[in-house]
Write a structure and sequence with these properties.
With about 230 residues, this protein is an alpha/beta fold. The protein has 5 helices and 16 strands. It folds into 2 domains: about 80 residues, Cell-division inhibitor MinC, N-terminal domain (Transcription Regulator spoIIAA, 2-Layer Sandwich), CATH 3.30.750.50; about 100 residues, Pectate Lyase C-like (3 Solenoid). The N and C termini lie far apart (about 55 Å).
Length: about 230
């Protein structure tokens, strides 16, 4: 059981090396046991988490996070993806994005939120907001300005609620249940909201950050590029 889980530290927080030779239930029990043993060391810590050694589904990742946070005082801020190609590309795109919008963010007093939003949670901002974590199904982010999610958007996101059609939404993984920019509201591409649809120019297997913006009354989702940001 002691070899089922190995906890390592890295520049993001903690890295779990997980056994692929036991059932997920047994693995979950081992994770809880390991973190309880390390409670004094990690007490009250706010950490990012990453995984290795076992392919996990999204639900399994959430189950691990819930098990850790329910049995310890640790707060998991977000899940870090360690695919080298994706990580390098994301870093490049985010750095370009931050350079492009740095001044408006400072002037607008953009807020930052660290942590994953789970079903039933709603995050609201009078300006723009940056979420360092995921927006899970059933969760929502609402802002008068633009929204940046350094994680996956699987729930609902509403930008430009004050009627700002120039607002936009950026995410590392864009697959919202419902999305709104300004006064235009739409659901995911396979579930149109009335006459409003999302025009998505992203392959379903893409691993690049994406941006949603309003064009001719339609919400468009495309890969995030510096050139596209300049045109919005």
């Amino acid at each position: 059981m002691s070899q089922a889980v190995v906890i390592k530290s890295n520049k993001y927080g903690i890295h779990l090396v997980l056994s692929n030779e036991i059932s997920f239930k047994a693995l979950l029990d081992a994770i809880v046991e390991k973190f309880k043993e390390s409670e004094k060391f990690f007490k009250g810590a706010k950490l990012a988490i990453s995984f290795e050694g076992r392919k996990l589904t999204h639900d399994e990742e959430m189950a691990i996070i819930d098990a850790v946070t329910s049995n310890t005082s640790i707060e998991i801020l977000c899940i870090v993806d360690h695919d080298p190609d994706r990580e390098a590309y994301v870093k490049q795109q985010i750095e370009e994005y931050q350079a492009s919008v740095q001044q408006p963010y400072v002037d607008g007093g953009t807020q930052f939120y660290r942590g994953t939003l789970r079903s039933g949670q709603t995050l609201e901002s009078e300006t723009g907001i940056v979420v360092v974590g995921d927006v899970n199904p059933g969760a929502a982010v609402m802002a008068n300005g633009s929204i940046v999610v350094l994680g996956a958007v699987k729930g609902s996101v509403y930008a430009g609620l004050g009627g700002d059609d120039s607002a936009f939404i950026v995410a590392l993984d864009m697959d919202p249940i419902q999305i709104r920019i300004g006064n235009v509201l739409a659901k995911s591409p396979d579930k149109p909201f009335g006459r409003r649809k999302i025009r998505k120019k992203v392959k379903e297997t893409t691993t690049s950050p994406q941006i949603a913006y309003l064009k001719d009354g339609t919400i468009c989702i495309e890969p995030l590029t510096k050139e596209l940001l300049s045109d919005i």
